[in-house]
Please model this.
Amino acid sequence: MASSTSLPLVSVTLSFKGQNVTLENLSTSTTGTDLYEQTRKVFSIPETTELKLLFKGKKVGLEDHIFTSVPTQTKKKTPPKIMVMATSSSTISHIASQRSDPLIRGFDKEQQKQTSTKNAAITGGYWGRHTQDKNYKFCKIQACDWQSFGHRPNEKTPHEFQAQRLLERLANDPGIVAIMKERELVVNTLGEMDPIDDRLMQKTEASGGCLLGYNTNRGLRIDIKLRTDDLQAFRPYPSLVATLIHELSHNWVGEHDLVFWTNFGQMRAEYLYWHLHHTREFVHGKTTAELAELPTSSKHKIFEFIMQELLRDMHQHGLHPNSIQAPIRQRCDELDATYNRGRRLGGDDKNLSAREKALEAAERRRRQGQQPENKE
Ligand code: NI
Model:
């Protein structure tokens, strides 16, 4: 757009392995390609290393002009930060080798055979064939070890490996994957919030933050409080999911304002629609909605479900969801159209892949085999 030479210059700070370098010669015409090039130069990162730039938790695309969408940044004293992530092949194999999880073998042998040796820390197994997206994902998953909060695994508190599995379940949850893909999100680490780290608690409380989760550097790292206060169990899965989506919403908005809640509500819609409209596929004999512990009765009341949830959550911040009804309704309508289009056009079966049909038939046979009189 701007053709004059008086484009305002914008600064940005690149952060790579704790090292910060500020680029001051950028403008609204700077593209992602320029940024990647300058970053390689500044940190001497060779072309053979895969590079990812994260701005506000989102990967910078080659065509992106990141400053057109954030013009106010130029007035700020501290330049916005871009996280630089370089992945060499040795780093990747390190992540893959982190899964020396002794539970894996006993936990679900059948599943173990299927996923075999490939990256189980990332690919999960709880959701069957559903795994994280290749590009938009949580790169690392990290539970707290018992030393960090002083509880040995043979006491009643769930073992570190169970916490790790729970984080994997969250990361691979197809409803969460749908959100990550839709919004092109990359989060470096999904971690367990130390359940008895008082310092962190005070910090989050003082900043009016959330006690159930923590978002560091706009999505560079998200930590979720997995355990109940008495450490005897994990919090219910659906509330862990809600916390994770809440933290993802902080990738865009730091405050708990109306923009934040609108974004949150829309992501909740994306999550619920995914699960409540994939009810014909079975994983380990259950629908994913059942695996996500969602009430399938709310399929046609997703909007109402979200508004109720918002009423409760926003109340804690002195807000009411009435004024953000419209954009959330709109997102629900869009999703309604997306998920129901196929059904109207071609009838149910034609929209299932051959694989899905086979799975469904196998599941039907299995169920009939178990309970010959049950016709659903
Ligand atoms: Ni929050």
Notes: The CA atoms of residues 238 and 293 lie 7 Å apart. Residues 325-346 form the longest helix (22 residues). DSSP finds 15 helices and nine strands in the chain.
